[in-house]
Amino acid sequence: FFRDEHRAAYDMLVPVLTALDPGMPPELGSLLGDDDSDVAKMLRELSQLKIPLAVAEELVRKVQVGVLERRIHELKVRVEALDHASDAYTAGFQELIALDRRRRELSSQE
Q1: Can you give the pTM of this predicted structure?
Q2: Mean pLDDT for each 10-residue chunk of the chain (110 residues)?
C-alpha cells in the first residue's frame, strides 16, 4: 500500500470480508459505527458511490483471494519447517489444500 490509511482500511475490512460468502456485500454501517477516524470517513464516502453491484462483488472477491494467498504463503512457511512425519505437518498440509481449493474457487469466478 502506498498510503497508511489504505493499509488501515484493508486491515479493518479483511476480517469482515473473509467471513462473507461469495457475492454477499459487507455491512459497513455496523462495522464503522460512530468511528470518526479518517479511515472510517473514507470508507463511508466509498460506500456512498454508485458502483454497480458486479464491480463491488468483484472487489470483495479480489480481497478474499488476496487474503487467502497471504494465509497460504504463511502456512507454507510454517509447514515446511515441520517434521514431515508429524501430525502437525499432516494437519497443516490438509489446511493448505483446503485453502488453495477455496482460492481456486474464488479465482474461477472471474
Answers
A1: 0.58
A2: 80 82 75 84 79 71 83 94 95 95 86
